[in-house]
Amino acid sequence: MDELYDVIVVGAGPAGLSAAIYAARAKFKVLVLEKEKLGGQITITSEVVNYPGIETIDGSALTEKMRKQAENFGAEFKMARALDMDLSEDIRVVKTDKGDLKTFGIVLALGANPRSLGFKGEQEYKGRGVAYCATCDGEFFTGMEVFVIGGGYAAAEEAVFLTKYAKKVTIIVREDDFTCAASVADKAREHEKIEIHFHTEIIEAAGDSVLRSATFRDNRTGEEWQYKAEPGKTFGIFVFAGYVPDTDWVRKKVSLNDYGYLITDQDQMTDVPGVYAAGDVCVKNLRQVVTAVSDGAVAATSLEKYVAKMWEKHGIAQREDVPKKATGAEVSVEESGESEAFITPEMKEQLKEVFGKFNSKITVKGLLDKSPLASQMEGFLKELSGISDRVECVVSRESDQTVSSETIPALCVLREDGTESGIRFYGIPGGHEFNSFVIGLYNAAGPGQTVTKEEEARIRNIKKPIDIKVAVSLSCTMCPTTVMSAGRIAAENEMVKAWTYDLALYPELKERYQIMSVPCMIINQEKVEFGKKSVEELLNILETIE
């Protein structure tokens, strides 16, 4: 019974974290699963101003506080992708890409993914001007004109956010008015850099290697009009057209409505006893942080009676306090704004536990020159050294070797025998990329992120040299998934290199490949791919390389 959880929460957005807080506080043994990053969609929101009791807060900061609350009550966290559920017995099984997990109760806090509109050119120019995350990609459009497609909360809020970068923002709203609260819409209406076109939709995005024009239609008059960028210039189109519920994998397990949302009762229970749902994935009228955390609380407290019955049925005594326990190599961190250190004392304590799980020793080698970036890298390595005897940090100066300017400054991850693992970081792995860096070390030292036997065979079957450059922004919530996937493959196959670049430090890379969105992968100097990629998705791409 040691491997049996009382509650498994699938999803670590506000709904899942709220469920974890309430369930763990009730002395349940709780595990929270998240496939990409803790926090969910709210982490890309720069400013939350409508959460009761908090005047304003960054989305990431809010969910980090929730995570700490849940962890303090004893909830465990694991980065894993849920693939299926076996609900045939009292003890349910959640099948993940990191193995099967047993539990009595399940809370599905699956969230949703950005919706594509399907206009002509949308897919062709994704990453070349068409974007879906203002926080991740807004800075790429500094000094340019930007169009925001949508009339809801996200469109109005993100349009205002984009004025930090764009010289002008035009909002294209299909309806006759905004569909969000007036307080949010009014900020967009009243902003001097924002223009709004109602009852209008986008018809086509066009250009060459990047966006050059866009065609729109006034649905009231039927008139079409076109925007053209200045000669030699480009512009941006940000799509905020709602979200698609992430429910494909549970479609045959619990009931969904015609739009793919989970159907629940007033207690947040699905049509399967012991399986609850919370947050944006549910059928509901209002999808906001405050309703998500409410759903999570209701789901967890409703589960109490069900789990208590299971304890009695299976002869399990009521639990005393559940101790905090680390699960896996993932580290959840928030950089301190009060310290100039790259790695805070709290982070070092977490790293000490993570590094203790390594199968072998590794070395992080700084290939450094005399640049300011190299000096910062050296400072980062000094803080990283001494945390564990499993990780050694060394520095090699430009004068000590013959290297091209493209190879330095860099942080190289070496195996115990001194050979390169294929994993490098060109920049300080801060922000969202700190976890990626730590997972890169874990992949190089072993056992590494869990992959399926089929994926492992496919990785080993790569017989030709593959050079992957992953261009990232440290503020991007989607980049870490791609970075970790590339690093996992490189650590397993010496034919693959996975080098990660902080694009803010390498403008020439942005210009050469005309990168307007992250994450962006450049494979063998030629093939360019945008968007977050799992190991399986990346393998599908690599297997097409000639």
User: Any idea how many domains?
Assistant: 3
Kindly provide the name of the CATH class of the largest domain: Alpha Beta
Strand order of the largest sheet: 19-18-20-21-23-22-24-25
Class by SSE composition = alpha/beta
CATH fold title of the largest domain: Glutaredoxin
- Main sheet makeup: 8 strands, mixed
Alpha carbon gyration radius: 24 Å
Helix residue percentage: 25-40%
Q: Total strand count, please? A: 25
Which stretches of 5+ consecutive residues score pLDDT under 50? 325-339, 400-405
Strand content: 15-25%
Give the averaged pLDDT, no decimals: 88
Protein described:
With 546 residues, the protein is an alpha/beta fold. The protein folds into three domains: 4-113 and 244-313, FAD/NAD(P)-binding domain, CATH 3.50.50; 130-241, FAD/NAD(P)-binding domain (3-Layer(bba) Sandwich), CATH 3.50.50.60; 345-542, Glutaredoxin (3-Layer(aba) Sandwich), CATH 3.40.30. 27% of the residues lie in helices and 25% in strands. It has helices at residues 14-25, 59-72, 134-137, 153-162, 182-189, 289-313, 345-355, 372-384, 433-445, 453-460, 479-492, 507-513, 535-542; strands at residues 4-10, 30-34, 76-79, 82-86, 92-96, 99-108, 112-114, 130-131, 145-149, 168-172, 194-197, 200-207, 211-218, 224-228, 236-239, 243-245, 275-277, 362-368, 391-397, 410-414, 420-426, 466-472, 496-502, 520-523, 527-530. The chain has an eight-stranded mixed beta sheet with strand order 19-18-20-21-23-22-24-25, with helices on both faces. Strands 1, 2, 3, 4, 5, 6 and 17 form a seven-stranded mixed beta sheet that branches. It is globular. Residues 325-339 and 400-405 have low confidence and may be disordered.
